Amino acid sequence: MTRLRKLLATIRLPAISVLVALLVGAIVIMLSDLEVLGKIPQDPLGAIVLGVQRVYLAYTSLLMGAFGDPAKFGKAIAAGGDAVLWAKAFRPITETLLASVPLMFVGLAVMVSFRTGVFNIGGEGQFMMGALGGTIAAIVLGGAGLPTPITILGVVALGALFGAAWAFIPGILKARVGASEVITTIMLNYIANLFIFFLLVNWELIQREDRTQPISKALDKFVVIPTILPIEALRLHLGFIVALLLAVVVSWFLWRTAKGFELRAAGLNLPAARYAGMGAASSVVIAMLISGAIAGIGGAFEVVGTVKQLTTAISGGVGFTAIAIALVGGTRPSGVVATSLVFGALRNGGALMGLNTGIPIDLLFFIQALVIMFIAAPSLTQRLIRSPFKRRVKEATA
Amino acid sequence: MRLELREITKQFPGVLANDRVSIAVDKGEVLGLLGENGAGKTTLMNILSGLYRPDSGAILIDGTERVFRDPAEAIAAGIGMVHQHFMLVPVFDVIESVALGAEPTTGPLGTFDRATARKQIIELSERYGLAVDPDAKIENLPVGVRQRVEILKALYRKSDILVLDEPSAVLTPQETEELFEIIRGLAKAGTSVIFITHKLNEVLAVADRITVLRRGAVAGNTTPSKADASSLAEMMVGREVQLTVSRGASKPGKPILQVQAMNVLDGRGGVAVHEASFEVHAGEILAVAGVQGNGQTELVEALTGLRPIDSGSLILDGNHLEGGSPRHIADAGVAHIPEDRSRDGMIKGMTVAENYVLNAYHRPPFSTGGRLDLKAIAARATQAVKDFDVRTPSIDTDIASLSGGNQQKVIVAREFGRDVRLVVAAQPTRGLDVGSIEYIHHRIVEQRDAGAAVLIVSTELDEVLALGDRVAVMYEGRIVGILDAKDATRERVGLLMGGAVA
To answer: Using the beta-carbon criterion (under 8 Å), do B55 and A259 form an inter-chain contact?
Structure first.
C-alpha cells in the first residue's frame, strides 16, 4: 500500500505534466485551425464545438496511431489466425515500442552520467559513433560469413566500444584539466556527425556501392537482428529486450554495487565524496565510459536493427530528447523506460494524426517541449493544477 | 521607535516555525532574543524584514500596524538588518559599500555623489563611535570592522531599529566587547536594537530585556538582573542543562600525532598554515582556538588528506602520512568530523544508512567483491542509530530531513564506529542544540578516555575551554601559543586569538 502510494507520488508530476501539455496542445490545435478561427466572429459557440471536434479527432488519431485501433483488434480476433490482420492490429503498438528503443538506450546513458553529476550532452555523438561501430561490425563480421549470433555480439560490442571511446574524451578532459563536459560533448557531437559523413563518402568498406551520397551499404544483406514477434511485418527486434535488460542492470549497478555507490555519491556531493576517500576524477571517467557504451549500443541496434543503413541522420536528435527523458524520468531507470514509452508513443502516433487531420508532427515536438517545461518548473505546474477555489480560501486566511 | 510583533504565527510544511510569538522593543532599548537553532529566531526576523509574510499576527511600529510585502518596505519603515553572513562586495571600498543601493546622486546624469556619501558616512561613524576608514577596501578589513560597515549600512538607511543576527559568531572576545560598546552607544542615541544569539553570557552582558524562544514559541521574558546563565539555559532547552563538560583529568600517553614545521597553502597562492608544530598525545584533547579564517580549516584539511601539505611532516603513530589520500589517512585510524557538515560530512539525497557507510562502503562487511551487502549495511546502521541516539523515522530516511543535531550524530557514529587513533573534530557542535552539544562532547571525551588522541578545532571559546586539556591558538596561520588548561583563561586565549604575543 505504501509502495503504491510512493509510486503514485513519484509519477504524479510527470503524469500531470503530460496531461497539462496535451491540454495546452489542444488549445493550440483549435487556435491554429483556420476554419475554427473564421467561425469565431459569427458563431463563437459553433467554433468551440468545431474546435473540440478537431481536437477529439486529432487525439484519437494520436492514440490509435500509437496503440492501435480497437476495431482492428476486433477484426483480427474474429478472423482467428489471419496473420495479416494481426499484423495490422499490432503494428502501431509495436512501432511505438520500436520508436522508444533508441530513446531508452540514450536516456539510460544520459541518466547514468547525470547521477554522477556529469552533464553529458553528447548522447547524440556517442549514439552516432555506436552506429558507426555497429555498421562496421555488421559489414565485416557478417560479410565474413560468421554465424548471426556472433555477428550480433560483435555489433553490440563494437557499438559499445565506439560510444565509450567517444565519451572517454570529454570524461578524461574533465577529470584531468577540468574542461566543461557540456562544451566538449556538444562539440564532439558535431565532430562525430562530420566524421561519419566523411567516412560515408570516402571509405569503400561501408560506402553504398555506386552512390556518391553519404549513405552506407544496406546492412540487412550482412546481418538481420531477430525480431521478437512471430509475425514478419512487426519490426520490433532484440534491441527492445536488450534496452529493458540494460535498465535493470543499470539499476542494479547504481544501487547495489560499491562503484555505483561512489558514482551516486560523487553526483550528489563531490566534496563529501572526496572527504569519504572516493576518487572523484575516476568517477567522472567511469560514468562517461558507461554512458557512452550504453548510447553506443543504442546506436548499433538502431542502425543494424531498425534503419538498416547508416546516414548522418541516424540519430535524429535522440541525444537531446534523451536529456529530457532522463530528467522527466526522475533520473531513475524505471522512469527513463516509462518516459521513453510515452515519448515513443507521441512520436509514432503523430504520424497517423498528421495523416488524418493535417496537423503537422511538429505539434508533438511542441507538446514534448511543454512536458519538459512543466517538469522543469514543478512549482508552475503545481500552481496550474491547484484549484482556484482552494487558493482563494488560503488568501482569505492570510 | 517602538516595535512590537504581536502573536506572529508562521507555518511551514510540517513545522510550526512561529507559534503566536510576541516580542517588543522600546526606543533606545536592547532586546536580547535568545534561542537554539531551530527555535524560530530567524523565521521571526525574516518576517520582520519583509522576506516572509506571517500566517497571522501583526507588526506594529509606534502602535500602528504595518505590512511589509518585501524587504524594501521594511527598510523604508526603518528596520535595518545585519546578517550573520555579511552582504558586502569585497572589491568595493567602505563608502561604496555603505551607499550601495541608496547612493546620493549629482548632476544631470545622476552620477554617484561620492563626496556627499563620504561626508555622511564620516558623520555617522563619528556620531555612533563606529571607527572605520571610509576609503579602505572591504577585502582588506578585518571581520570586526566589516561588521561595523554592515551596521553603518543600516544606519545610513536611517534605521531606527537595528537587528543583529548572531553578530559575535565571527569575532574575538575583545572584538565582541567592542561590539557591545557600539550597541550600548546606539541604544543611548535612541536606536532600538534586537540582538539575536544563542550565547547566554552575551545577552546577559548587553541586553536590557531578554526574550527566550523555544520550538517556535516564547518560552519566557526576563531581564539580566533577574536571570543567570543556568536559568536562561533551562528556559531555552526546557530542562536543566549541564553547562560544563564533566570529564576526569587526562592521562596523556605517548604522542600519537606529531606535526612538524608544517606549511599549507590556501587555494590562492598564499600560505594558510605557517610552520605549524605540535603533538597530540594518546588520551588528551588538544583544542585549537582562533577566530574563523586563521588557517584552522586548512590545517584540518591537511591533517586529513584533503589538502596537500606544502612542506613539513605529518606523523601518526610513528608513520609518515604526508601526501596520503583521505582514504589512506582514514584507514590509518583518523576519524574526521568535518567543519562544514552539509558540504563535506554527509550527502543529502542519500539515506541515513548510506551516509553511515559513506567511507566504509567498499569494505567488508558492507560490500564483498564490489557488491554492496544491503542487509549488513541495514543491520549496522540500525545498531548505530540506536547506539548514538539518532532520532530518525528510519534508516532509509533522507539525511537531509534530519535536524542538524541528528545529522551530526550520524557523522559521529560513522567516524567513531571503527578503531580510532586520532579524532580530528572541526567545529563539532556548530549550529547544534544544547542537548546535542552535550551528547557530542560526551562522545568525544569518551574517545579520549578510551585512549585516542583528540584534536578539536573550534571558534567557540566556551567549547575550547570546556574540552581542551591543552589549548593551542591560531592566528594568521601560525600557532601563536599552546597553553595548559589551567593557564588557558578566557582573557589569555582571547588576547592570543587577536594576535597579541604570548
So the answer is: no
Distances (CA, A) of B201 to B198, B216, B231, B451: 9, 22, 12, 34
Residue A354's pLDDT is 85
Q: Which residue, B237, B264, B282, sits at the end of a domain?
A: B237
Q: CA–CA distance from B440 to each of B234, B344, B403, B490 (Å)?
A: 19, 18, 14, 23
Pairwise CB contact (< 8 Å): B55 & A398: yes
Residue B183 and residue B61 in one domain? yes
pLDDT in tens, B12-35: 877 788 999 999 999 999 999 998
Instruction: Give me the pLDDT at residue B211, please.
Output: 94
Is A271 in CB contact (< 8 Å) with chain B?
yes
Contact residues of B toward A, CB < 8 A: 53, 55-56, 304, 306, 325-328, 330, 336, 338, 340, 343-350, 354, 358-359, 361-362, 367, 370-372, 374
* Local structure of B361: helix, strand or coil: coil
3-state secondary structure of B495: helix
Residue of A nearest to B52 (CA): A398
Spell out which residues of chain A touch residue B55, defining contact as CB-CB under 8 Å: 397-398
Task: Decide if B367 and A258 are in contact by the 8 Å CB cutoff.
Answer: yes
Contact B445, B245 (CB under 8 A): yes
Strand, helix or coil for residue B237: helix
A256 inside 8 A of chain B by CB: yes
Domain co-membership, B303 together with B426:
yes
State how many domains chain B has: 3
Q: What pLDDT score was predicted for residue B376?
A: 95
pTM metric for this prediction: 0.80
Q: Find the residue in B nearest to A271 (Cα).
A: B344
Answer yes or no: are the C-beta atoms of B256 and B231 closer than 8 Å: no
Do B246 and B376 share a domain, yes or no?
no
Inter-chain residue contact B326 with A398, CB threshold 8 Å: no
B172 and B271 housed in the same domain:
no
Q: Which residues of chain B have pLDDT under 70?
A: 242-243, 501-502
Among candidates B338, B348, B354 on the partner chain, residue whose Cβ is nearest the Cβ of A275: B338
| Contact between chains at B372 and A256 (C-beta distance less than 8 A) | yes
Transcribe B138-189 into DSSP letters.
GGGS-HHHHHHHHHHHHHHTT-SEEEEESTTTTS-HHHHHHHHHHHHHHHHT
pLDDT at position A384 is 62
Q: Is residue B439 part of a domain?
A: no
Low-confidence ranges of chain A (pLDDT < 70): 1, 379-398
Q: Which positions 18-77 of A are in contact with B (Cβ < 8 Å)?
A: none
Q: Write down the ipTM of this complex.
A: 0.82
What CATH number corresponds to the domain at position B490?
A: 3.40.50.300
> What's the pLDDT tens digit per position in A360-375?
888 888 888 888 788 7
Domain limits, chain A: 14-79+359-385, 97-340
Q: For residue A264, which residues of chain B lie inside 8 Å, CB to CB?
A: 350
- Structural domain for B233, as ranges: 3-237
Same-domain status, B225 and B270: no
Choose one of B237, B264, B280: the last residue of a domain.
B237
**CA–CA gap between residue B23 and residue B43 (Å, rounded):** 13
pLDDT for A296 equals: 98
Q: Which of B304, B327, B346 sits opposite A272 (nearest CB)?
A: B346
Q: In this complex, do A274 and B306 lie within 8 Å of one another by their Cβ atoms? A: yes
A277–chain B Cβ distance below 8 A for any pair: yes
Closest Cβ–Cβ partner in B326, B367, B371 for A275: B326
The answer to whether the peptide bond before residue B365 is cis (omega within 30 degrees of 0) is yes
Clarify whether residues B254 and B114 are in a common domain. Answer: no
C-alpha cell at B125: 561613524
Which CATH number is correct for A97-340, 3.10.20, 1.10.260, 1.10.3470, 1.20.950? 1.10.3470
CB nearest to A259's CB, from B53, B56, B370: B370
Q: What is the pLDDT of residue A396?
A: 39
